[in-house]
Structure to design on (800 residues):
């Protein structure tokens, strides 16, 4: 759906084959009830397909297909959405992006290399409330990081902490003494989250990622990237839910007519089709702009504006669209037997994980206001 | 003034854009950032004189574009155009940002009228009609909708009866945007009542100031009097002004309606930036309103401003993606109905957001406060965005039936048109 160049099309078809064979709907359903969803050997295979390197510059061991690695990765995100596939795709790529862009040579030779090879999984601690104090040997971090994806399977979590020079990033090994995990339950049964508490976790001075005091700005950049990935997943999930529903209304009869012969149903399908197209369009444009570092402000050339617009719009209308697909299915729609819930769960998670649609609207609103009358 | 009228057809887009940039800077006046759009935002305080001044400005700006070699970029040189590609027009439209341009005459003159002439006009018709359009000398209107119904365009009752080399037209057309200041019109009329409705229609071109044609003004909810109703009584049209075949009007209409839908974006014949910083109820305009009201830092205000801006950005992304996919053949041309639907519903939502932002200050204002008047007035008339250019219901029909292949609606109009049930007029 998002592949443009020939390279991207090859990448899309090999990635699609992998996702389809590993995560047919029966398997996703089985994983929903399983204790653990992560499978290390499978993730290594995924890394071999190129899923971990796209957001990392070549100089740091990565590389993209099209020159815009985020546009490439959008292809995988949308496949995840289409199949409601599990896997630490977001966190791993976000941390790889952070280490590849701002990490030290040691961090790139160590943790980043492990991540690129698929040996280590990582998480972005975007809901961090932590503080740090300097010690003679390094830094001591305490606090709580909420909603950390794959924390039990991950080796590293990127956390922003308040310290005397402002807000800065540290890379915390999850095996470090003082780290405790509380598992969470949630709407999406195959993407798993933990609250992470850090109680006097002692790290070496080399654990800082990026310039001191730069975490707020860097988190904002990571939020743009995360938004694009979430938009890709939502677009993929919407695409599938719509296709299922189009088929359903053609084959289900009432009063001697197929459902799709009723104008009310036709009009709702037309609205849904248009929302699917809008989601794909804004995801693609946001990926193109965020991935190439384009623009600023609230204009149509600004990556941040497009990523926020996408999250505000698709975040609000995407989950609603899938609820409408459920409505059009009737009773079967609200059961576990109908696959629609897999896409509903994935979409509503993506629409809220990084902030509600309203929060993304305010983020865009602030860009508009900051631009003043001349924007 | 430098002229580029002799650009070769294979001029690279980049070079053309650079030339356009230089030419615009030297010749085109800047856009007035406070100027409103014609129909949806302006207040009733505007007079006809004011509108006529603006229409004259449009004619002058169009002439300027023409003489500079930038009118009809995708139109063949023999008709006064530049013979270039949609990519050149798109590049020019990008360069146009920040400059005044004849936005108010793009619809209906260039789309659908010029676009339809290019597809269906005879050589003689194209040579006669297109150059004056491109020079700003002829503004065109569309005589399509009738008092008996606009959605069912093929149900037109206005009748053209042949009389030798001429046709005699009788009937009434309505909702014609700008007919009162326009020069020419494209008109759909019934030429055969004895066959199925689509097979008895013919399209004509006719001058709007002609014996037997009376134009009345209609006032919209926001006080705008752009719209007109025309009464045609024995109006004589030459057969050489017939566009397409006799009784072949529906073939023309299919493309006419398609071109009309591209007003939300994607037409190669439209000279426009496609977005206006000052567009009604878009984020920047709402931010200005909130500043005036002192609520700009309110979380709810920021949310409203952001949602409005999001709708614009998503709509832009949708329109350009659909346009590209129609060009590559990934989507059929009926897909333009998605752009039409999304831009209609999002404009309606933006009007609602604006009113939510202002509350009491949007339902009353001090005389002359155009900012706040714009909110209330554009809210009142907001459904026009889902009606004009074909309703959003019709767009949904097109998406469902043509794009998704869902069953067509049952019809009761497939016999001779004379016998088709019609409402009381
Ligand atoms: C801003 C603006 C500019 C316009 N400019 C022009 C112009 O320049 N020239 C011109 O000729 N006309 C113009 N129009 C008229 C416009 O094209 C018609 O108003 C429109 O096509 C609807 O026709 P109608 O008003 O007769 O409504 P109707 O066709 O009577 O429709 C009434 C309602 O019924 C719905 N409806 C009708 N048929 C169906 C169906 N089969 N399925 C479901 N719902 C249906 C419609 O969507 C609408 O909601 C303009 C209108 C506006 C608002």
């Amino acid at each position: 759906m998002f592949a443009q160049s020939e390279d991207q099309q090859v990448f899309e078809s090999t990635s699609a084959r992998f996702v389809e064979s590993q995560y047919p709907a029966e398997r996703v359903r089985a994983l929903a009830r399983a204790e653990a969803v992560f499978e290390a050997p499978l993730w290594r295979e995924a890394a071999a397909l190129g899923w971990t390197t796209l957001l990392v510059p070549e100089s740091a061991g990565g590389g993209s297909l099209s020159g815009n690695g985020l546009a490439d990765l959008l292809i995988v995100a949308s496949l995840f959405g289409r199949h409601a596939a599990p896997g630490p795709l977001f966190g791993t790529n976000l941390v790889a992006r952070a280490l590849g862009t701002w990490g030290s040579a040691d961090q790139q030779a160590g943790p980043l290399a492990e991540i690129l090879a698929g040996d280590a999984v990582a998480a972005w601690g975007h809901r961090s409330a932590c503080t740090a104090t300097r010690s003679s040997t390094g830094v001591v971090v305490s606090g709580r990081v909420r909603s950390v994806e794959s924390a039990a399977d991950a080796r590293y979590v990127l956390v922003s902490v308040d310290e005397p020079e402002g807000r800065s990033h540290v890379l915390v090994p999850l095996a470090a003494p003082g780290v405790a995990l509380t598992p969470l339950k949630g709407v999406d049964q195959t993407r798993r989250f933990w609250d992470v508490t850090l109680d006097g976790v002692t790290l070496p001075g080399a654990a800082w990622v990026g310039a001191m005091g730069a975490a707020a700005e860097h988190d904002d950049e990571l939020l743009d990237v995360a938004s694009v990935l979430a938009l890709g997943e939502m677009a993929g999930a919407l695409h599938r839910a719509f296709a299922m529903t189009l088929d359903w209304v053609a084959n289900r009869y009432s009063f001697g007519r197929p459902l799709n012969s009723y104008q009310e149903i036709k009009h709702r399908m037309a609205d849904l089709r248009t929302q699917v197209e809008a989601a794909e369009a804004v995801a693609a444009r946001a990926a193109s702009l965020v991935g190439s570092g384009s623009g600023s402000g609230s204009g149509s050339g600004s990556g941040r504006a497009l990523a926020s617009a996408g999250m505000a719009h698709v975040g609000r209308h995407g989950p609603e669209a899938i609820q409408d697909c459920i409505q059009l299915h009737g009773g079967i729609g609200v059961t576990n037997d109908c696959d629609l819930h897999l896409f509903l769960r994935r979409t509503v998670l993506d629409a809220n994980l990084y902030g509600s649609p309203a929060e993304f609207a305010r983020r865009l609103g602030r860009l508009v206001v900051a631009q003043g009358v001349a924007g | 003034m430098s002229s580029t009228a002799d650009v070769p057809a294979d001029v690279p887009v980049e070079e053309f854009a650079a030339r356009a940039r230089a030419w615009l800077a030297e010749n085109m006046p800047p856009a007035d950032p406070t100027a409103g759009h014609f129909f949806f935002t302006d207040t009733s305080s505007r007079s006809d004189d004011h509108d006529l001044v603006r229409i004259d400005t449009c004619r002058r700006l169009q002439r300027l574009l023409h003489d500079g070699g930038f009118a009809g970029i995708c139109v063949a040189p023999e008709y006064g155009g530049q013979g270039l590609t949609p990519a050149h027009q798109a590049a020019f439209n990008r360069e146009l940002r920040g400059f005044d341009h004849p936005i108010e005459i793009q619809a209906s003159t260039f789309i659908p009228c010029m676009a339809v002439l290019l597809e269906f006009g005879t050589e003689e018709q194209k040579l006669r009609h297109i150059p004056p359009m491109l020079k700003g000398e002829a503004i065109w209107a569309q005589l399509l909708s009738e008092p008996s119904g606009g959605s069912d365009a093929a149900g037109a009752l206005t009748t053209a009866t042949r009389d030798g080399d001429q046709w005699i037209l009788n009937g009434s057309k309505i909702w014609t945007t700008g007919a009162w200041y326009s020069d020419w019109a494209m008109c759909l009329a019934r030429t055969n009542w004895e066959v199925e409705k689509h097979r008895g229609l013919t399209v004509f071109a006719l001058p709007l100031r002609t014996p037997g044609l009376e134009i009345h003004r209609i006032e919209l909810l926001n006080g705008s009097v752009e719209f007109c109703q025309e009464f045609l009584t024995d109006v004589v049209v030459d057969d050489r002004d017939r566009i397409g075949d006799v009784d072949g009007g529906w073939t023309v209409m299919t493309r006419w309606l398609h071109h009309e839908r591209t007003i939300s974006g994607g037409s190669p014949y439209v000279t426009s930036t496609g977005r206006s910083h000052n567009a009604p109820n878009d984020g920047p305009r709402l931010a200005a309103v909130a500043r005036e009201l002192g609520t700009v830092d309110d979380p709810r205000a920021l949310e409203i401003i952001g949602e409005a801006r999001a709708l614009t950005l998503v709509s832009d992304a949708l329109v350009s993606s659909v346009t590209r996919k129609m060009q590559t053949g990934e989507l059929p041309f009926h897909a333009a109905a998605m752009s039409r639907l999304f831009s209609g519903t999002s404009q309606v939502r933006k009007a609602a957001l604006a009113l939510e932002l202002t509350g009491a200050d949007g339902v009353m204002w001090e005389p002359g406060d155009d900012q706040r008047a714009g909110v209330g007035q554009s809210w009142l008339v907001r459904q026009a965005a889902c009606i004009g250019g074909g309703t959003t219901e019709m767009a949904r029909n097109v998406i469902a039936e043509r794009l998704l292949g869902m069953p067509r609606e049952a019809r009761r109009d497939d016999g001779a048109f004379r016998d088709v049930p019609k409402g009381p007029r």
Chain B touches chain A through 47 residues (CB under 8 Å). The longest helix of chain B spans residues 299-328.
